[in-house]
Amino acid sequence: MPRRTLAIDWGDRRIGLAVSDALGLLASPAGVVTRRVGKRPPIAELLRHADALEVEAIVFGLPIDPAGNETDRSREVRDVAARLASRTTRPVRLVDERFTTSAALRAVREQGGSTRGRKGDVDALAAAILLEQVLQAERGGVELGEAVIPFAAAEPSAE
């Protein structure tokens, strides 16, 4: 069933955002959220964007290495996605994001543009490329990635 979806491309300094239309046909870059090194992840800010964009689902790009193995960054994204999922009723999924940033860089260059000073644009475009993959799969009846289990549900009770 089509629904507006927010895609998140998690980075060290910037978090790229993209949103789909209500029909689930198009993905558009939706800006970036700046991260501060050493500070807590900006989960509340991501949720404010989700509210403002009126999304019904959230997709995190899962950064795994070219061989398909987990990395320190993928473990970080899993943690942040679980924290975010515990603060919303929206379904949250993790989807392999391999090569989305390189595809975004290539797209900018093919259009004759420079990526100098446009890192935020590239991050948002990478999120849009990830979201396009998700939307295309959904149109084919396939749900990509894995559902995120919120922390509250994942942690055993202290009873």
Describe the structure.
The chain is an alpha/beta fold and 159 residues long. The chain has a single domain (5-154), classed as 2-Layer Sandwich (Nucleotidyltransferase, domain 5), CATH 3.30.420. The protein has helices spanning 43-52, 72-85, 100-110, 119-139, 151-154; strands spanning 5-9, 14-20, 27-34, 57-62, 92-96, 146-147. It has a six-stranded mixed beta sheet, sandwiched between helices. Helix 3 (100-110) packs across helix 4. The chain is globular and about 35 Å long. The N and C termini lie far apart (39 Å). The relative contact order is 0.21.
Structural class: alpha/beta
CATH H-level homologous superfamily name: YqgF/RNase H-like domain
Q: Any idea how many domains?
A: 1
Overall number of strands = 6
SS element count, helices = 5
Residue-averaged pLDDT, rounded?
A: 84
Low-confidence stretches: 154-159
CATH class: Alpha Beta
CATH topology: Nucleotidyltransferase, domain 5
**Which H/E pattern describes the elements?**
EEEHEHEHHEH
- The CATH architecture category equals 2-Layer Sandwich
Please provide a brief summary of the model.
The chain is an alpha/beta fold. It has helices at residues 43-52, 72-85, 100-110, 119-139, 151-154, and strands spanning 5-9, 14-20, 27-34, 57-62, 92-96, 146-147. It has a single domain, classed as YqgF/RNase H-like domain (Nucleotidyltransferase, domain 5, 2-Layer Sandwich), CATH 3.30.420.
Secondary-structure blueprint:
Layout (H helix, E strand, L loop, with lengths): L4 E5 L4 E7 L6 E8 L8 H10 L4 E6 L9 H14 L6 E5 L3 H11 L8 H21 L6 E2 L3 H4 L5
Parallel strand pairs: 1-4, 4-5
Antiparallel strand pairs: 1-2, 2-3, 5-6
Helix pairs in contact: 3-4
